[in-house]
């Protein structure tokens, strides 16, 4: 994201101010509209499985102020991945706590993928009707990319990310508690690896695969008219 812009400037590559503007607008839309959707998806799934905690605490909402986390928003602005204020979930209300937590966790990244798919569909609709303004294309390209990056990042099997809840569903109870026991240390290691760029290439490979899949699925309804 903006980190990439800084790198481009340092290398002497030309940067379009319109591209930067569209990137910032896409990030702002993600922060104020999509992050609340991500957290709403968690709360909605939890409610469907029997846990009304999010609703009772006023968190089953799309209001961006309820989900805004300043540090997580800054991370998205700078690096393209971050977080919102987590929706409260109480697994004791689930018939199967492990399965319930896994499904609740999965709902967030799925919401991001569906949001990316919606953006790709809009791009195809605009192309179908001959609308190809460069600023619109730039906005939706960044919008789709950030959603994919958020989904992939949150699916990492690292506490407290959503992926850790999914992995925990397949672990014995004793191993699961050990898994979460060192949560703080694991998070610090994760941020160190991100800061050093160790995860840049692996994440980029997965991001590109998922993004390509999103564009491919979004193009299917329009292939009959080509």
Describe this structure in words.
It is a single chain. With 226 residues, this protein is mainly α. The chain is 72% helix and 0% strand. Helix 2 runs antiparallel to helix 6 (97-128) and helix 6 (97-128) crosses helix 8. The radius of gyration is 19 Å and the shape is globular.
Straight-line distance between termini: 33 Å
Give the helix/strand class.
mainly alpha
Question: Tell me, what's the shape?
Answer: globular
Whole-number mean pLDDT? 86
Question: Radius of gyration, rounded?
Answer: 19 Å
**Low confidence ranges:** 1-12
Counting DSSP H or I runs of 4 or more residues, the number of helices is: 11
Helix content: over 70%
Range of strand content = under 5%
Number of beta-strand segments: 0
Give a quick account of the main beta sheet: strands, pairing sense, barrel closure.
Answer: none
- The secondary-structure element order is HHHHHHHHHHH
Q: Descriptors for this entry?
A:
single chain
Task: Indicate the topology.
Elements: H1 2-10, H2 17-48, H3 53-56, H4 64-67, H5 70-79, H6 97-128, H7 134-154, H8 162-168, H9 173-181, H10 183-196, H11 200-219
Helix pairs in contact: 2-6, 2-7, 6-7, 6-8, 6-11, 7-11
